[in-house]
Amino acid sequence: MKINNLSVGDLKPGMVVASGVSNLSGQTLLQANTPVTPEIIRMLRSWGVEHVSVIPLEGSEPEVAQSSTDTPHNQALRTALEQRFRLTQRDHPVIQAVFSSCLERALIRIPNE
Question: Which of these, 50, 53, 66, 85, could form a disulfide with 18 (CB 3.0-4.6 Å)?
């Protein structure tokens, strides 16, 4: 089963929440296997949730942006960063957001040589 971590703005009704969504206090906001509805999307926005792990709609694949960031230099940065995150729960939405942020900052700070 494929699971995608999507921003709340990319959620579509019919998707299914793959893992529970909790607030910073650990209170469960949504349980796993909850169907995404327009109301759920509105509630996630109001709760300040940025990303949710979902099971995508059948027959749909998320758009993967192909960019110039797939150079050998940038892949080396990604590999080094993955090594630093090796002991984390990489499928957790917060960890994914932190990883992405760190990668973006590394790409800016260490220009392609």
Answer: 53
